[in-house]
TrEMBL record:
Keywords: DNA-binding, Transcription, Transcription regulation. SUPFAM superfamilies: Periplasmic binding protein-like II (SSF53850), Winged helix' DNA-binding domain (SSF46785). Transmembrane segments: none annotated. One of its GO terms (molecular function) is DNA binding. This is Transcriptional regulator, LysR family. It comes from the Bacteria. Belongs to the LysR transcriptional regulatory family. Residues 4-61 form the HTH lysR-type domain.
Length: 286
């Protein structure tokens, strides 16, 4: 076995996760040839072939699953070590990646990140918009701002605000059918409450985004349960006199992976994000 280049692990894991060289190249922002070269270098280092070359592309060999699992653990450890080294006694600068839902990314978070930048001009922030949970243990992002009843295992954070909900429809559309939740939103508190209340045929359309549901409602497709902060200032919608349970309110977490929780830089950024959200508590309230 030759000396390993730990950075090659990123390419191996990306191909294993994407299940294709092209998908790994898109994920890593490199070209196809670079991925092939780094895979070949890793296989040469460990002295064994990790992927089968087939007409359909690179596929992980079944007998290499344990190797990939070990590589994933090493990759996590190396990434954590780098972040810890960067954060110790460092000024509030560098690059911080924050993931959140599209609803928050397209409403309150741009203004909040602008305020944070005003207090830390050397800090560069990336806002990653996705309604799927980003794996912080794989360091796809350092921080998450995300509504959830409880934090997933391995994350530590605070809940500066709660996200409240109400029913909305376009004027004259209160008697239309309901708009349903799709994708990961089917596990949300509002849908777990609403679904048993309605007949399946009463769902006229569905979406996996509150922003899309808002647009469907505004165009008269149906009525929707929406976060108050998403709909309250939309002149195309009217709030309906439908009583929703108080326990639909969902905490909004500002969190990071437990291995990074003591990094001074991330502690300060979390504090700034929490303070900014607390200042906007009225926007989220029912």
């Amino acid at each position: 076995m030759h000396r390993l280049n730990w950075d090659d692990l990123r390419f191996v894991l990306a191909v294993a996760e994407a299940q294709s060289v092209a998908g790994a190249a898109r994920q890593l922002g490199v070209n196809h040839a670079t991925v092939l070269r780094r895979i070949a270098a890793f296989e040469d280092s460990v002295g064994t072939q990790v992927f089968d070359r087939t007409p359909r592309g690179y596929t992980l060999r079944p007998d290499r699953l344990r190797l990939i699992a070990a590589a994933r653990e090493v990759g996590q450890a190396v990434g954590t070590l780098r972040l810890l080294a960067d954060g110790m006694d460092a000024p509030l600068g560098g690059h911080a990646r924050v993931t959140s839902t599209d609803s928050l990314c397209q409403t309150v978070l741009p203004e909040i990140l602008s305020e944070v930048r005003g207090k830390a001009s050397e800090l560069q922030m990336s806002l990653i918009s996705t309604n799927s949970h980003v794996n912080l243990s794989r360091l796809e992002a350092e921080l998450t701002v995300r509504p959830a009843p409880v934090l997933p295992e391995g994350l530590i954070g605070e809940t500066p605000v709660e996200m409240h909900f109400a029913a909305y429809a376009a004027p004259g559309c209160a008697d239309l059918g309901w708009l349903g939740f799709d994708g990961t939103m089917r596990r949300s508190r509002p849908w777990l409450w609403l679904e048993p209340q309605i007949e399946k045929h009463a769902v006229v359309a569905s979406a996996d985004s509150f922003l899309v549901l808002r647009e469907l409602a505004a165009r008269g497709v149906g009525k929707a349960v929406l976060p108050v902060f998403v709909a309250r200032n939309d002149s195309r919608l009217q709030r309906l006199d439908i009583a929703l349970p108080e326990d639909l309110a969902t905490p909004v977490w500002v969190a990071c992976h437990e291995d990074l929780a003591d990094m001074p830089r991330l502690i300060r950024i979390r504090k700034l994000l929490c303070e900014a959200l607390e200042m906007r508590a009225a926007l989220f309230a029912a």
